[in-house]
Structures are given as C-alpha cells and as structure tokens.
Specification:
It is a single chain. Helices cover 46% and strands 17% of the residues. The chain is α/β, with parallel strands linked by helices. Strands 12-22-21-14-15-16-17-13 form an eight-stranded mixed β-sheet. Strands 24-25-26-27-28-29-30-31 form an eight-stranded parallel β-barrel, surrounded by six helices. α13 crosses α20 (536-554) and α35 packs across α36. The longest helix is centred in the last third of the chain and has 25 residues, at 606-630.
Length: 906
Amino acid sequence: MSENKAPHVAKFVYDFTEGNKDLKDLLGGKGANLAEMTNLGLPVPPGFTITTEACKGYLENGEEPAALRDEVSAHLDALEARMGKKLGQADDPLLVSVRSGAKFSMPGMMDTVLNIGLSDKSVQGLAKQAGDERFAWDSYRRLIQMFGKTVLGVEGDLFEEALEKAKDAKKVKVDTDLEAADLKKLVTAFKKIVKKEAGRDFPQDPREQMDLAIKAVFESWNGDRAKLYRRQERIPHDLGTAVNICSMVFGNLGPDSGTGVAFTRDPASGHQGVYGDYLQNAQGEDVVAGIRNTVPLAELERIDKKSYDQLMQIMETLENHYKDLCDIEFTIERGQLWMLQTRVGKRTAGAAFRIATQLVDQGLIDETEALQRVTGAQLAQLMFPRFDEQAKVEQVGRGIAASPGAAVGKAVFDSYTAVKWSRSGEKVILVRRETNPDDLDGMIAAEGILTSRGGKTSHAAVVARGMGKTCVCGAEELEVDTKRRRMTVPGGHVVEEGDVISIDGSTGKVYLGEVPVVPSPVVEYFEGRMHPGADDADELVEAVHRMMAFADRKRRLRVRANADNAEDALRARRFGAQGIGLCRTEHMFLGERREMVEKLILADTGEEREAALTELLPLQKKDFVELFEAMDGLPVTVRLLDPPLHEFLPDITELSVRVALAESRQEPHENDLRLLQAVHRLHEQNPMLGLRGVRLGLVIPGLFAMQVRAIAEAAAERKNAKGDPRAEIMIPLVGTVQELEIVREEADRVIAEVQAATGTELKLAIGTMIELPRAALTAGQIAEAAEFFSFGTNDLTQTVWGFSRDDVEASFFTAYLEKGIFGVSPFETIDKDGVGSLVKLAAEAGRRTRPDLKLGVCGEHGGDPESVHFFHEVGLDYVSCSPFRIPVARLEAGRAATQSTGSDHR
C-alpha cells in the first residue's frame, strides 16, 4: 500500500496501528492523526476507525455496507482481547467512545457519544473496578444524556433542566459536588426522560448502543448545523465522516484525573509558550462545552508535574513532526497521560502570519510552504479597523481574548434573534453563557460573540477563530440571563437586549456603547505610515511584510487597481498596484459636469452635440493628465463610457414632480420638461442589456472620439513633460468583432490627429472587455482587432446566469445559499464551471489568434482569493481590483504560484 494513498480494496475498518496522517480522505482528520500518534509511540488508547467510504455508503443507500458489521465485530474482538475485557461486561466492562472525524475539522458540528457499554449492570462493575461509586454513576448519567440527545433525538435542555434541579436540591453550584446517591437519582430521571420523549427504554445491550451511535454519527454529517458549517467554510458536501471507536480513559476519576486541550503555540497571537485549558475531575466534553471554567494549562505543572512534563515533551514532538501549530486533546486518568486527538490547529489571522514566519526562522518550513500557511482572507481580516485606545470608554468586563477584532453591535441573547435582526440590517453581538453547535446560525450572523463561560478552547472560541469572527470568552463577572434577555455587569448596571455593546477580541475587554475605531496597523503599513518594529503591532507588521515579500517574489500574476481618480491611484500604488486595470470614465461625468452631459443628451442638432462634447473634452483631459501622473511608468487601462445615458439624468419620479409643480404654479420649466421627455425616451425595461457600452459609441457620433482625444492629448502632454504615460483604451460590451473594428478605426484616426498636432509619438494599446457570452464564444475573431482582453466578470456573471445582480442578491440569493444551490455567491467567487469555462475558452481562442494578447480581469473577482487562483491557472497576465484588495490579490497570486497539493490548513 502506498504511504499517501488509500488502498483500492474494499475495507471499511482500520486499527489505529494501520493508518497514518496522510489518509485523511479515508480515515478523517481525527482517525488519521490518532493513527499517526500511535505510529510515533505516543500514549493513545487502543481503538479503530470506520472509514468515510462506509459513511458515504450508508448515506447513499440508507443502510450500512454489508461487510461493515462483520469488520466492526472483528476489530472489536481484537480490541477486547488487547484490553482483557469485553464491551459492557458486568464485572469489569470495557467502555468505548464513538466520535466523528471528517477530513476537515468541523468543531462541534457532528456527534460524539462517550461511555458506550454502561448499563444498569455494568455500572456496578465499573464502580467496583474503579473503587469509586460516584465516578461510575457520573459516567452513566453522561452516557444517557449524550445518547439520548445525539442518538435518540431527545431535546438536550430536558437533561440540563434535570441536572440543574438535582444541583438545586443539593444546594450546590457545580456538578462535581453531586454525590453518588444524587447521580443515581439523576440516572433514573434521565431514563424516564428518554422513555417519555423517545418512546423507548434506554438500550441496555452495549453492542446495540455502539451500533446506534455509529449510525447517529453517520447521519450527523447531514445535520443542519454540519451543512451550514460546511457552506460557511466551503467544505465539500460529499466527503462523509469517519467514525472512531476508542477505548475509554477517564478524566472524571477524582482530583488526580482530568482532561484538557493544549496548543503548541497561542492560537490567538501565535506566540510560543504554554497555552491551553485543564479541568480536573472532568471528561473531555466539559472543556469545550465551557460548562465549568477551566484553569490555564500552566497550572497542570503544579497539579501533576509528571503528566505536565510528559505533555510538554509530546507537544514538542508533535509540532516538530507536523511542522505546525498543533491542537491537542488529552486526558489524565489517575496520573496516566493519554492522547485523544491532535490536529493542525485553527488560528487567528495574526497568529497565522506570525507562526508562518517563526517556522521559517526555525528551519521547519521554507518560504514556499509558508505561503500556504496564510490566506488572503486572513490578510483582509488584519486590515479591519481596531478600537481607538484614546477614546473615552466605559469598560464593564474582561474575558479571554479568544479571537481578535473590534466588534460593535446590539446585544442579543439567542441565535434566532441574531439572525432575524441581522437580516433587518442590524449589527448584533451574540451574548451567551456558553455557545453550543446549535448556535452556529447566530454566530455567523453576529459581528462578534461574548460568553461568560469557557476559555480559548471552548466551542465559541474554536468556531469563532475558524470563521475569523471577533470573540471574547469567559467574562465571569458578567451575569448572562438568556431567559430574561439581559446581562448584568459589575456595579449592577443591566444591559438589555438591543443595547449597544463593544467587544475587543484582542484584549478581551467589554464596553458599554459604541467605541470608535481607528485604522489597522497593517493598513498603516501598506499606506507607508508604519514600519516593522519591536512591539506587538509592529511584530505583526513585520510578519505581514515578510509574507508579502515572499509572495511578490513568487507570483506570476501582476496586480492592478480599479481606480478612477489620482487619489485612488496613488493609494493603490502605495498598496503595491502595478498599474490601473480599470478606470471607469463614467465617474468623470458626474457632479458639476452632469449639466454638460444633460446638454449632450438633449442635443437636437450636430452643432449642439459637438458643443457639448467640446465643453467636456478639457475636463476629461485634465482627469487623465492627473491619473497618468499618479501612475507614471505603469499601465492605465481607460474604459470608455459604459452605463446607459439615463443614469446621468434626474430620477423620473423626482423630475415628474418638479414639472407638475412648475406647471401648477405656472413657473418656467422648459428645461425640466425636455429632460423628462429625454428620460422617457431613454427608458428601457432592461437597461443593462440595452443602449450602453460600445453601442453608445456607435449611435452617438463623437462621444467615443472625444474620450479617445482626451486620453491621447493627456498622454502627449505627460510625455512632453518627460513623463512615461502608458495608456490603454478599452472598449466595453463588445459582442462582435465588427463593433470593435468600427470604434477602433475612429480611435486610430483620432490618435493619429493628436500625434500630428503635438508632434509626439503615442503607443496606445486598444482592447476590449469580454463581458458577454457571445464575446467569449467569438474571442478568436475579436482578437484580430484587440491588443488585449480584460474580462468583465461582473457583467459576464450576470449574462451567463441571467441574473440582475441588484435584484437577485436581495430577493432569492439567501434561499439559494441556505439550500446549498450556491456554496458562495457567484458574484463573490467566480463560477468556475460556467463563467470560468467561458473565460478559459476566450483566453485560449484569443491567444490562438494573437499569441501576444495581454489578458486581465477587472471585475470584483480580481480581488477574491479563490478566484485569483483560477485566473492564475487559466494563464491571465494580471488581475485588477479595488485598492484595499490589492494586498490580498498580491498574496493570493504568490500562493497560486506556489500551490502544493500536500498543504491544507483549513
């Protein structure tokens, strides 16, 4: 069997001794890494993994593959022989956990059941074997609770309410204060809940427990929260989950036992040190659920130095082996350390950049691999504003800085309200005691998450970091009352639902009201106002600086800016733009110049039209002179007028009212009346598919000629001033080569006239936008008259899909995303199968006609990380995007050039 490939034989179960970390497709991330740790000789409880292929078979056919039960039985027999005890036997039971484990980490989104094998009989044997009756009954109540909720579909709150009643009756606050007799009563109460709600008794047969739990884990792959999380994280829906059957080790055996989560580096900052949480006398779910506040991992050295030292050695071994930040789950059973899981850990954006550069400095990875450890989406997060430290604020609490960012919004206390208010345009902060997987909808909708319980390894923290969402956890002094929808802060002040709060995920501070924000240090770096230095912010800037330098050295794609004026052009240049890929000239026709455009539209004669164009010419030229100066030495692609002319006229309703009022008052209104007539004349049912782009240039004599003359004269003036203008003229919305030929003939004539008049030689490339399906399909013909193509993927997406973007995003896109028709909006990330196929076809056809044809993209996809990779693959020369997206595009272009199939850091 190849080390890196799954075998082709039909085998559905693998012992932990058989797999390795490269079999994630087959064994899932958890199973592959349990096998890897076993191979490394680390203390992993024995067990086996049911493959993702078995899950896919079950989901496709509604029943498990025929061979699966026999394979599971054979591996269970081997496990029992190794452990010297049988599953659920009365006197000395073997207990197992049944845990999900997909290829990509989906924290809390799928199901887990612990303590499988306990029954009314075996609980007695466990108590005797452990010499601890309380522990045995605690484990039994946990099994019934988890099994009831996960496998039998019983509402989890019913078990929680019964647990709270038991604590109230005993007058204690934490479950560890309940004694064996209390837990026996709780088991009885839990079994009654199962009987009432599920319509059946809790199963006493341990094999039935295990088989039902396996099926429940399979089915949880298609649970609502799992599907939502996959859409959010863009994880394919057809992977399935593996199931891990692991012999139980117990952290709830008393004060010399416990469970914890550790990171080899801080997932929030990236700094090296001892990071994690530990909880004595607890099982693993207690830590991530946040139901009891943990102690910092460093406390374990005082509690159990032997286990602490062993854990530190194992953490070092794992980080060096995986060459990355590792996230580790462990249990200590009466002084014996056991490793339950490891994975490459999720991290914040800042931590990702710091860790990548640290690992390069340590010689563990090279620059190429470092680029695969960071993403453009993470860089974009680092460019978000932060709170102004000089502002007057009212701090009301402080928790654990779990995921950085500056989030402001109205406090809401449940996910339903968070989603509802967010859809109404409100910014919200989701406030909970602790979150659970059912809160995923609200976490996605919220600007940030605040919890009063839990630490850096709680569900809220892990999921928020994965989504790049601001999060503060474990703010203990805040009393959260979800039923009354309020939060009480120190001093007695009450924050009601709807009150504005601010949370700082970088410091853990919580404020009343809205705190003003200031620019990110990363933006200040790109603007040239901050340089790498020594303090924390500068350390991050240094890491970003180095990764950008790596990317710029590696990338093939050039990155240009969409910019329409000198100010935007200069900013884009500071951000690293290598030219302008789209200058929209329509923006130059607005403001005080609108009256001149109105004159052009209202012109009844050739003389009137020529007068209007003559008035516009020097203003257009001035704009281009400033733009060419700002981008001196770099290409500037100027798109001739594109939108329908009615966009330059007043609103039809507003104009109608003005005319009606003037008529009723018998006031002069001839000009408004002419404008109204023009608006009616130019009205179109589908203006984006009407008289616009090249069509304007063909039906309004002199319009494009004026613009070409302004470009040429500005270029000549700049060149005569010893500058280096590199203007390119782009004809929009071409659908046939004949349109381009006619406009080009006129443009060449105007350029020749300007050259003759100024005595200046001009080299102005003329090309077109490919933004219509017909243009893409006839690109070979169009390339005969075009020196470059720029793909206008916004319009190309609209015309390929038959969508009007302004309408559909507000009407049915939400439903399409929720139903999984879209994984992501096709206006956000390019539709590779449809729109992308046309881009690829047009690029290939164009270059067959003209091998030196320059290819770029100027739609919004030019700044989208995933789309940049596609444009690299199809051989474009450059992408163009808004100034603030330029660093993102530069980084992703570098990543695309160094992409390796072996890296995956979701």
